């Protein structure tokens, strides 16, 4: 068995990098936090649906 490495995808530096964190208060819903860790239990910002990226083709 041989190990192969795939080339990394090109990075678009104009596009912001999102840190997507699953919502700990609603783990089965697919909700995420785009602004950092889940703070739902302490009155933090509400979660959102995970962002969808369209595939080329």
Question: What does the model show?
Answer:
- It is a single chain.
- This protein has 57 residues and is mostly beta strands.
- It has no helices and 3 strands.
- It has a 3-stranded antiparallel sheet, with no helix packed on it.
- A hairpin with an 8-residue loop joins strand 1 (21-22) and strand 2 (31-33).
- The protein starts with 20 loop residues before the first strand and ends in an 8-residue tail after the last strand.
- The model has no long low-confidence stretch (mean pLDDT 80).
List the main descriptive attributes of the protein structure presented here.
57 residues, three-stranded antiparallel beta sheet, elongated, mainly beta
Structural class: mainly beta
How many E-type strands? 3
Main β-sheet, in a few words? 3 strands, antiparallel
End-to-end Cα distance, whole Å, is 32 Å
Low-pLDDT ranges: none
Kindly report the average pLDDT value. 80
Strand coverage percent: 5-15%
Shape: elongated
Helical region count? 0
State the order of secondary-structure elements, H for helix, E for strand: EEE
Q: What oligomeric state do these chains adopt?
A: single chain
Rg over CA atoms: 16 Å
Level of helix content? under 10%
Strand order of the largest sheet: 1-2-3
Task: Summarize, please.
With 57 residues, the chain is mainly beta.
């Amino acid at each position: 068995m041989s190990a192969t490495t795939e080339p990394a995808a090109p990075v678009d530096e104009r596009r912001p990098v999102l840190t997507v964190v699953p919502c700990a208060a609603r783990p089965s819903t697919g909700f995420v936090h785009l602004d950092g860790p889940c703070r739902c239990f302490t009155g933090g910002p509400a979660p959102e649906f995970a962002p969808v990226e369209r595939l080329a083709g």
